[in-house]
Specification:
Elements lengths: L1 H20 L3 H21 L20 H11 L4 H14 L3 H14 L4 H14 L6 H13 L5 H13 L2 H14 L5 H23 L2
Helix pairs in contact: 1-2, 4-5, 4-6, 5-6, 6-7, 6-8, 7-8, 8-9, 9-10
Length: about 210
């Protein structure tokens, strides 16, 4: 009821303002129509008795750290036709639109079907979209990437990260070890991947020790 009273007060104030300002009758008709439409909409959808609550964001952003992008560029390269889709995917993930992130990379795969880089990113995005689970679609995408580039460390590395997020540490460990073995000696990214493997081994050992 309070909402309707407020609406009536607003209407009265608007009418009084038009009288005081001596506005033309034509303006009165426009203002009256606007007030009538507003009142009709409020009567149809207004819920004045509903308790107030702070707005909650619907998006759930996915962190895409600069360090992760730098490592990806060392592994996959940069400024290629493939990486243009990766940049768009990063933006979608940061915005929390997991579906759009998967779709934009899927469009890239259709345009460049032999790109192991895009198949790898598609596997990552599908796993994220499916609640950080290694879904059959994500497995298929990673499998395709490894088939296209069996000697490249990128596909097994990102598949390992997806398995870590899914909680399957043994599978992650096997793939991460494979990525390290495929990495070129003396490179910065090999040192980074080897360091991550050491951390994972220590964590798994601690979990096993705690379970005894």
């Amino acid at each position: 009821m309070t909402g309707f009273i407020a609406l009536a007060v607003i209407g009265a104030l608007a009418f009084g303002a038009m009288v005081l300002l001596r506005l033309p009758r034509l303006v009165w008709s426009f203002a009256g129509a606007a007030l009538f439409l507003g009142a009709a909409g409020y009567a149809w959808q207004g819920r004045p008795a509903l308790a107030a609550a702070p707005a909650k964001p619907t998006a759930n952003p996915v962190a895409v750290e600069p360090e992760s992008i730098a490592l990806r560029e060392r592994l996959m390269g940069r400024f290629t036709a493939d990486t243009a889709y990766l940049v768009a995917s990063d933006a979608m993930l940061r915005a929390g639109d997991r579906r759009a992130a998967a779709q934009v990379v899927l469009g890239g795969v259709r345009a460049i079907p032999q790109s192991f880089i895009l198949w790898t990113q598609l596997g990552t995005n599908l796993a994220i979209h499916d609640g950080d689970q290694m879904s059959p679609a994500a497995k298929l995408a990673f499998g395709r990437a490894m088939h296209l580039a069996p000697e490249h460390p990128g596909p097994p590395y990102y598949a390992a990260l997806a398995y870590i997020r899914a909680g399957d540490l043994p599978a992650a460990r096997r793939l991460l070890a494979r990525a390290v073995s495929l990495s070129r000696e003396g490179t910065e990214y090999r040192r980074q991947l080897a360091g991550q493997l050491i951390v994972l081994d220590r964590y798994m050992a601690a979990v096993e020790q705690a379970g005894r």
